[in-house]
Amino acid sequence: MRIPADQEIRALHERYAPTQEAFESVYTHCVIVCEVAEQLVERGSLAVDVELARAGCLLHDIGVYRLYDSSGRLDHTRYIQHGLLGHDLLRDLGFPETLCRFCSHHTGMGLTRDDVLRQALPIPVADYLAESAEERLVMYADKFHSKASPPVFLTADAYAVRVREFGADKEAAFATMRRRYGEPDLSALRAAYGHGAA
């Protein structure tokens, strides 16, 4: 499987971002998630395909661009769909399923068929769970930065509080990942990007 290089992925972001502001929000977030993941791999000596995980980090939120309207406003009401929109976008461009899944299988701590039904989520009823080591790494690294306005870094404790509202199973899944991967050092990233902490 050919894994796209960083420049190719950046070009995709530039192509699909409706505005410079959208590009800066989404692409910067993806780069930060990549830096968090690389830090976790380095500290934990994780057995992952680093090149694949890097591409997954840089691509995982590309579907967010499809939620912007013609005036550059993000439709927050449909945000849950961004993963599937990204999956479809990459699939339509000929990317392999392995890469497409980074988009559709990183949301929260994973979505089950039961989550979709119980919450009446506007996505097809299916399981959207991280399965490979690389998918799990991307999902976990994604939890430490938010594209909120303004964007912020989240500590593991801060995310643990957020995930609690989605159920004990999600809280337990995050706790398991936290033990497995450890916690990134966010201080240098906060300084480099000028984003605050939540």
Description:
The structure is a single chain. The chain is mainly alpha-helical and 198 residues long. The protein contains ten helices and three strands; from the N terminus they run αααααααββαααβ. Strands 1-2-3 form a three-stranded mixed sheet, with helices on one face. Helix 8 runs antiparallel to helix 9. The protein is globular and about 40 Å long.
Quote the beta fraction: under 5%
Listing every helix as H and every strand as E from the N terminus to the C terminus, the arrangement reads HHHHHHHEEHHHE
Give the uncertain stretches in residue-range form: none
How would a crystallographer describe the biggest sheet?
3 strands, mixed
Helix fraction bin? 55-70%
Using only C-alpha atoms, the radius of gyration works out to: 16 Å
| Straight-line distance between termini | 38 Å
**Total strands:** 3
User: What general outline do the C-alpha atoms trace?
Assistant: globular
Q: What is the structural class?
A: mainly alpha
Question: What's the total helix number?
Answer: 10
What do the pLDDT scores average to? 96
Strand order within the widest beta sheet: 1-2-3
Layout of secondary structure:
Layout: H1 6-16, H2 20-44, H3 50-59, H4 82-92, H5 97-104, H6 113-118, H7 133-142, E1 145-146, E2 152-153, H8 156-164, H9 168-181, H10 187-193, E3 196-197
Parallel strand pairs: 2-3
Antiparallel strand pairs: 1-2
